[in-house]
Amino acid sequence: MALFVVFQTTFFLTLLSLRTYQSEVLAERLPLTPVSLKVSTNSIHQSLHLQWTVHNLPYHQELKMVFQIQISRIETSNVVWVGNYSTTVKWNQVLHWSWESELPLECATHFVRMKSVMDDASFPEPNFWSNWSSWEEVSVQDSLGRGILFVFPKDKLVEEGSNVTICYVSRNIQNNVSCYLEGKQIHGEQLDPHVTAFNLNSVPFIRNRGTNIYCEASQGNVSKGIEGIVLFVSKVLEEPKDFSCETQDFKTLHCTWDPGTDTALGWSKQPSQSYTLFESFSGEKKLCTHKNWCNWQITQDSQETYNFTLIAENYLRKRSVNILFNLTHRVYLMNPFSVNFENVNATNAIMTWKVHSMRNNFTYLCQIELHGEGKMMQYDVSIKVNGEYFLSELEPATEYMARVRCADASHFWKWSEWSGQNFTTLEAAPSEAPDVWRSVNSEPGNHTVTLFWKPLSKLHANGKILFYNVVVENLDKPSRSELRSIPAPANSTKLILDRCSYQICVTANNSVGASPASIIVISVDPENKEVEEERIAGTDGRFSLSWKPQPGDIIGYVVDWCDHPQDVLQWKNVGPNTTSTVISTDAFRPGVRYDFRIYGLSTKRIACLLEKKTGYSQELAPSDNPHVLVDMLTSHSFTLSWKDYSTESQPGFIQGYHVYLKSKARQCHPRFQKAVLSDGSECCKYKIDNPEEKALIVDNLKPESSYEFFVTPFTSAGEGPNATFTKVTTPDEHSSMLIHILLPMVFCVLLIMIVCYLKSQWIKETCYPDIPDPYKSSILSLIKFKENPHLTIMNVSDCIPDAIEVVSKPEGTKIQILGTRKSLTETELTKPNYLYLLPTEKNHSGPGPCICFENFTYNQAASDSGFCGHVPVSPKAPPSMLGLMTSPENVLKALEKNYMNSLGEVPAGETSLNYVSQLASPMSGDKDSLPTNPVEPPHCSEYKMQMAVPLRLALPRPTENSSLSSITLLDPGEHYR
Amino acid sequence: MKVLAAGVVPLLLVLHWKHGAGSPLPITPVNATCAIRHPCHNNLMNQIRSQLAQLNGSANALFILYYTAQGEPFPNNLDKLCGPNVTDFPPFHANGTEKAKLVDLYRIVVYLGTSLGNITRDQKILNPSALSLHSKLNATADILRGLLSNVLCRLCSKYHVGHVDVTYGPDTSGKDVFQKKKLGCQLLGKYKETIAVLAQAF
């Protein structure tokens, strides 16, 4: 102890003596002046670099000193910066210090000087500033080289939002220099005649390729050149977000973060920001190779607590974020494995799984999710390593998906990923009776019952329904039940039952068993009740039905209807205490009529029809218009009728009809109202409110007027479709009267004509016979005109027609047969030729009584022949000769002419004559009486007249006028009886 | 051996230049023999004409792609920033003999080749997303290499010229970004102008 005290005293004495010595030495050498100041420039960083030494510094001694530095620009008096720099100085040490200039160093000359003071606590006050060093001038303008314009700083990297000063140096002050930032002119401050500086405040980030800033030197309008720089503006480095670390295996810490904006720039001016992970307890650092995550190796098992600092850094800025945590609180488990299901039955299963072991005595919290039938159930369970959970209350025959995830139960950090698997429960017997309904068609002697049932829901089927059992039991006559098995998925069956009561039981069956039975009873007379149908209106595709409650024991009600157009029977069960329901289904279609029947179910399961209702879920306007007939058209009215129009098969209840009538008259008829059609035209409208009234008498019309009508039905939704109007024109007022007169007249005329036609022969014979009555003939007047006193008319009945023969000349003169052009040869002419004018009778085959006469002025040969006999006239014989006389004019002319010839002009030399029988003269003018159809006189007793006719006249050339050639001469003077 | 070192090697260097070729390098002809590795094609002149036409056809598109990618003020100040004011650009005498024209062409292609190499390198760094420009620059450099080979073959086989003094394009590695953009634009403007004359001359 004494030794220690002695040592301590000696130490303090020594120290005190040393201190005293130092003070004496320094006091002698003060002040300490900075010397050898040298200033250099760094164009890249736009900084001045100062280096100096301190004179008079004691050997091997360190002193804390403060250096005050002054920096002037352009001239020494223009001090732009003054500052102190404190440091510890050693003997003979070269000191360095840098100053970054906001103005590019190339644009101005800088001056630097400094002074110093000792700031060491070991020396007491007072301390004195040294003298200023001399000004050091720095100028780089001289090294710019050739060129008329320079812009600075080159390729400067700044942060978005910072302030930047740029400048240009123009060699020629005559040049006018304009500078632009991205095409927009900027204005600056002239530092000297050659230099102008521009302060750009809060520069924006435009692109990572840099921002072009350029200046153009010009004289007048003549450009002397453009020079520029590229300013690289970096986005501001953001602080990493959501920084966290966790481990899955206590070997590696996985740290993640959101890096934010990438601050990388083109031209390699600045790469993406780097991230460094630093752990303060261990002092370890790791440069991360990824921008948003980094792995940290856990090397010391004993270290439980970690203090991480994530440092983001680029050329301009550094950001950091820190987290402190206990390793066991950052356990992110790997997802469980070996997920299995054991003892799976219809409603239960056991789920097992395993967890990756972390450390001993680790407790895990696991969460189980069970998905099935659209539902999700969640269970939490705490386990050690092997997990197990009993899943109960499952639905039979259902596929489930179960998954599990786990976390550290002691310090929950986050759940692991899910691990899951599917499983299916076993089937069970259906749990509910099928919903059964029936429709009954009663026929003489039996009922046709169609049973319908709805498929059981998956919830109640408990498996796949394989078949349905239908058991039919006669309640009136105890007998064996009849069982029918109908394979699924059928949902109906048809039964033909006699007129007895039957009980029908229906069960659904799957592979495990049968469902409870659904029972329905068919009574003897199931549908005998007459129920009046009531109309209802649906709204929004729904029908609201209500009915009167039924007295007695009712176990429920059933409403059934048919879906259209499928015509599938649908039904709905309603409880016994309910007397209304709403039928709503997507199957309801607008414009379709639905018929609802409401049944009450008795305790004996017998259905009794209570009410019928019919309606539309939405009424539509009629889809078609009736076909209208117009009846009883008169001059003042007509009747429209559309009896065939069916009001039942319409898309709405027909409420009546609208009859539209158009006429030229402006005024509507009584009972009609004015209406405007969709096309804007006006017409008259009549409304019929009774849908069964399908006729309308439109009266008070004008005769001979045109009307147009159009009939359309209407429902609550509107009228039928537009159609064209039908035109009706009323007849004339007297036309009916005329019809009443004209029709009988026409009938009478027709009757007369028919009679005339039927009695034409009689009429002919009576009115205009073929052989006219000479006494009535017009010839008589002629004869009278000739004043023949011996007028005698032959009685036709006494006359026997005969032939007249005409004999040709014996000299063989060529003779033309009348009506023919055939020439007779001489040989032929050696025999007398005869012309038969009138046959004695038709088809006369033999000689008949006739009278022949001779005239010896005729050809002798002919007379010699003594031929006298009847020669029948062939029907084909030419009637030309006879035809010559058919015209009365010809007759008259002939008479006038030939009469004279016959008396005096016949030449003596004529040796041949023709004779014409007057019987052959059709003086009556009846053409039909020509020889083609000659009258058959019974006798030809005498020849009335004969006369000689020159051959020239009698046989004219065929080419001559027939009026001349066809002459029949009747000379009264030579008329013989 | 000296012959190889003094004559063939520089030629091979020129044929296989890399990006960033340096300042003008005069190659002094030595009395060396002309040596080529492969026999020249019979139809060399046609191939040369075809390659010149191909370059001439794509020069303007390359020029437009380039100055568009540089941003303002380049597209609107082509005459001031992209004028063909290229120093040391080898001259071309269109009225000379075929041999003289081929020698001139050789010098020009070497100059353009090195310059395009510099431009391609710069643009890949400055405009890494301008893929169309990069593709066009590479395609042009490829054709220039083929043209240089053909010109060399022609000179060697017909005129026995084994050595040509050449100058390279300016080295831009020490320049600031704006100067690189400007020099590249000037070079491509000069290229567009020259290649039209060359295509016409052959």
Summed over residues and divided by their number, the pLDDT of chain B gives a mean of 79
> Span from first to last CA of chain A?
224 Å
User: Any idea what the shape of chain B is?
Assistant: elongated
Number of strands of chain A: 55
**What share of the residues of chain A does DSSP label as strand, in percent?**
35-45%
Main sheet overview of chain B:
none
* Average pLDDT over all residues of chain A: 76
The number of helical segments of chain B is 6
Secondary-structure element series of chain B: HHHHHH
How does the helix and strand content of chain B classify structurally?
mainly alpha
Report the biggest beta sheet of chain A as strand number plus sense, adding barrel if it closes. 6 strands, antiparallel
**CATH top-level class of the domain at 436-616 in chain A:** Mainly Beta
| Biggest chain pair interface | A-B, 22 and 18 residues
Class based on secondary structure composition and strand pairing of chain A? mainly beta
Task: Looking at this protein, list some descriptive labels.
heterodimer, A: 977 residues, mainly beta, Immunoglobulin-like, six-stranded antiparallel beta sheet, 11 helices, 55 strands, 37% strand, B: 202 residues, mainly alpha, Growth Hormone, Chain: A, 6 helices, 63% helix, glycoprotein (chain A), receptor (chain A), LIF-R-like_Ig-like (chain A), growth factor binding (chain A)
Q: What's the quick description here?
A:
The complex is a heterodimer of chains A (977) and B (202). Chain A is mainly beta and 977 residues long.
